[in-house]
Amino acid sequence: MIVIKELNKTIGEKTILRNVSLQVDKGDTVGILGPNGAGKSTILKIIGGLMKPSSGTVKIEGQKIKDNPLETKKRIGFLAHNSYLYDHFSPLENLKFFGKLYNVENCEVKAKDLIREVGLTYFMHEPIRSFSRGMIQRLAIARAIIHDPEILILDEPHTGLDQHAVTLLNNVILKMKEKGSTILMVTHDFAQTVETCDRIVIMKHGVILDDFKVTNPDVDMIYEKYVEQVG
């Protein structure tokens, strides 16, 4: 599904990624762990077409993003640090806007269902400029999946969420897994990684240190493995 070969990214004199190679099969849910500055978010931005690599290739279903950027990006849902929402719009108006960009059928019905799913029904028609960080994050999750993407990219999705919202998000991730979506998630939350991911990649200083299947959903075991690699 996604094949990354010898990916490098340099900004100025700083090397962010160093010869990173990774293959993600269709339907995989991969958690990417690592300390700040490991290059985790940079990989997601390159896969999502938001940033160009200095060298190396990223192919999705055998096709480079630059060869057909519009069609490739239509297959991707991206939840970044920036919500990409319009603060003078309501949740419904935001989701209808993004749904129409992707030519989503029955867009309003789909938008209302997602608003209900992320627990914002009561605020459906309110401008989001007064929303809390957690509420914005919930709506951004809905925005990322309005078009049922084949690939879902999540950059620290649990940030700013209370426990109830974390449960809602995990349910969304698991539902996308059931639909067959391929999911890549950068996170610092080991518990949520174990609950939702079936594979973990550990990075440090722009290099992949470990890549393994989650056969034992034990948070302590994953943490010990992480500390062993990252130090």
Give a quick precis of the structure:
36% of the residues lie in helices and 26% in strands. It has 231 residues and is an alpha/beta fold. Helix 3 packs across helix 4 (107-117).
Describe the structure in your own words.
The chain is of the alpha/beta class. The protein has a single domain, classed as Rossmann fold, CATH 3.40.50. The chain is built from eight helices and ten strands. A six-stranded mixed β-sheet has the order 6-7-8-3-9-10, sandwiched between helices. The protein has a four-stranded antiparallel β-sheet with strand order 2-1-4-5, covered by helices on one side. The longest helix is centred in the C-terminal third of the chain and has 16 residues, at 163-178. It starts with a strand and ends with a helix.
Query: What is the 3D form?
Result: globular
- Radius of gyration from the alpha-carbon trace, in angstroms: 18 Å
User: What would you call the structural class?
Assistant: alpha/beta
Calculate the mean pLDDT score and round it.
93
The total domain count is 1
Query: How do the strands of the widest beta sheet line up side by side?
Result: 6-7-8-3-9-10
> Could you state the order of secondary-structure elements as H and E?
EEEHEEHEHHHEHEHEEH
Largest sheet: 6 strands, mixed
